[in-house]
Amino acid sequence: MPRTAAPPLTSPIPRVADSDRRRTSASVVLRSVLEHGPVARSTIARLTGLSPASVTDYCARFAELGLIRESAELRRSRGVGRPHLPVDLDDSRFVVGGVHVAVPHTTVALLDLRGRVVARREVKHERTEPAVVLARAADGLAALLAGTPGSRSLGVGFAAGGWVDRDSGTVVEHPLLGWREVPVREVLGAHTGLPVHVDGHARALVNAERLFGGARGSRSVLHLFAGNVVDAAFATNDEVHHGPRSQAGAIAHLPVPGGTENCDCGRVGCLQAELSERTLCRRAREAGIVDGVNPMHVVGAAAAGDPVAVRLLLERSRRVGRAVGLLLDVLNPERVVVTEIGIMYREDCLTALREEVEAGRAATVSPSGFPDSVLAVAGGSVALDVLYRDPLGASPEAI
């Protein structure tokens, strides 16, 4: 009986591994340019552990794609040796679109490759049906692109609160908007003709902080978002945890001891019901401080010296601090970033929040690095994270 032939030595597995390795290497090279540019190729090789030849090859490809360029200034390494031309990001050609859907409005924006907001606008929700909101967001992006001649979009990032499934590009559930199983990637892609990347806003902001903010270089980062929606995200070893169908970070219905607010789920004292900006504004209206639903009006009243507005903001920051303390105990991250309106604009609120955290960990907690553009950055960072993870896969439509 003839012997069975041995399988060929070349199998699909090494090719997949090689592809992953090339994508990872390309990612670390471009992120080194982002973090250290203008930077010499030899320095990139030293920082990344890649060979000088590999770094040169990746940089040549990035230059062809228009992602980097050589600096005009010759430099010498420590003042000696042959001068070199360092490379830096080329932030003059490409942008990404950003869409963040909040409860009262949608923020649309354009961001450059450094995560800086080039243009943005808010589109108030006259109606909240998904088709209407997404069509108006696409129109808003088109208007922004028309107003920035010379810029080409690599794609669109979409972020929202609630349950957002990154892999399917779907908002599975957003109770405050009444959205269920909304195929955002498909709908927004059909409107814009561009690649669309979708994620939850807390995870988007973790990536923004790691790429462009104060958490750059941290081995593990927790982000807590306290707006109308309250949720969290956790990243370790440069990976954000998503969980099955991206359900990780759903903390809205954690019970708050002593909580008194009725929640839409039928219980009393859920974290989101206690901390949401809707609750803050309602309490401010009851106190006669404001007559609307904009939490910035509460911040403005506090800045004008209203003691009740100050008290409401401090109380909310303390509640957020207690939530941070619980999550610190569970996850033990190296850094904590909190997006909460009080601590982003008032030092006394940040102090109040940190006082609720274990003394030895308080200094690890900081406010968002994007206080004036957090929603715009959230949307755009979904697309920028994809770019920096796979820069050689940048949209051929744009390039």
TrEMBL record:
* Entry keyword set: Kinase, Transferase
Which GO molecular function entries does the Swiss-Prot or TrEMBL record give?
A: kinase activity
Instruction: Give the residue ranges for region: Disordered.
Output: 1-21
Instruction: Read off the SUPFAM superfamilies from this record.
Output: Actin-like ATPase domain (SSF53067), Winged helix' DNA-binding domain (SSF46785)
Pfam families the UniProt entry points to: ROK
The UniProt entry, under Gene3D superfamilies, shows:
3.30.420.40, Winged helix-like DNA-binding domain superfamily/Winged helix DNA-binding domain (1.10.10.10)
Q: Does the keyword Ion transport apply?
A: no
| Name the record gives this protein | Putative NBD/HSP70 family sugar kinase
State the species of origin.
Streptomyces violarus
